[in-house]
Design goal:
The chain is of the alpha+beta class and about 260 residues long. It folds into two domains: about 5-125, 3-Layer(aba) Sandwich (Trna Endonuclease, Chain: A, domain 1); about 135-235, GMP Synthetase, Chain A, domain 3. The chain contains eight helices and 13 strands. The strands form three sheets. Strands 1, 3, 4, 5, 6 and 7 form a six-stranded mixed sheet that branches. Strands 8, 9, 10, 11 and 12 form a five-stranded mixed sheet that branches.
């Protein structure tokens, strides 16, 4: 059996402080950002999947695990599954009005999330960042962002391998006098901008801080503004991309999720 996972740790923190809203939000954020193994009745057929469904208290619920080993332990051996991100799975299940059983019977993070909780998660994840055109006229040392936001950014960006070289967090002043914070991504892979901006938006949404705000920008490695960012900014490094798998599992493309049968 595998050791403690990131989901185990987030679940333990939530269970240890049931009145702590921030701990509960961090668990849901980790669930959304993780790749999960959805137990299937049979191998996927094209873009259609047939998940195993249980009905505790008469309400349909699928079974997911945060590792293939845990799924096999539950099933008593290798079993068909679809690898899906938590955010994709939440959207699919909310549409069907279904709940989610996580790591049931095989891990300390075992939990049953009713359809209402899944629908709430899908609603939070459905929010999209607004796109505006603005360039800072002054860059300064960042200050005032809560530690929970900084920790959330560090954890989330560490899981976005290969999408950009790095990111700089700085304080900014825009034309017109507006001030705030900017997370500037350096050398983002073409097409990854939306996912990076959405990840930052989700970190803020799950921070529990209604007033938290953070702008996102994208800069070429040759942009002269990066010299100033490097002097006064806080750097986040994104890991390099590992070797690509031989084939894409169902649900690996969030724009083309599989269909439940």
């Amino acid at each position: 059996m595998t050791g403690m996972t990131a989901i185990d740790a987030a679940h333990a923190a939530m269970e240890a402080a049931p009145e702590d809203e921030a701990a509960r939000l961090r668990f849901y954020e980790r669930l959304a950002a993780s790749e999960l193994c959805l137990l299937l009745r049979a191998e996927a057929e094209g873009d259609r999947i047939d998940p195993v469904v249980i009905a505790p208290e008469g309400r349909d619920c699928v079974l997911v695990f945060d590792s293939e080993a845990r799924l096999a332990a539950f099933a008593g051996g290798p079993a068909p599954y679809a690898a899906l991100s938590g955010r994709v799975l939440a959207a699919m299940l909310a549409e069907q009005g279904m709940g989610l059983g996580l790591n049931l019977g095989v891990a300390p993070s075992a939990i049953l999330l009713p359809a209402e909780a899944v629908a709430w998660l899908a609603e939070v994840l459905a929010a999209r960042p607004e796109e505006v055109a603005a360039r800072p006229v002054e860059i300064s040392v960042p200050g005032g962002l809560p530690e929970v936001v900084l920790q959330g950014l560090d954890a989330r960006l560490a899981g976005m391998a290969g999408m950009a070289r790095a990111a700089w967090l700085v304080g900014v002043r825009y034309e017109g006098g507006g001030r705030g914070h900017l997370l500037g991504f350096v050398g983002a892979v073409p097409g990854a901008e939306g996912a990076l901006a959405q990840a930052v938006s989700e970190v803020l949404a799950f921070s529990g801080l209604e007033a938290a705000a953070l702008d996102v920008g994208f800069f070429a490695p040759s942009d002269p503004v990066l010299a100033r960012m490097a002097v006064c900014g806080l750097r986040f490094d994104l890991p390099e991309m590992a070797a690509a798998p031989a084939r894409k599992p169902p649900g690996s493309d969030p724009d083309q999720p599989p269909r439940l049968r």
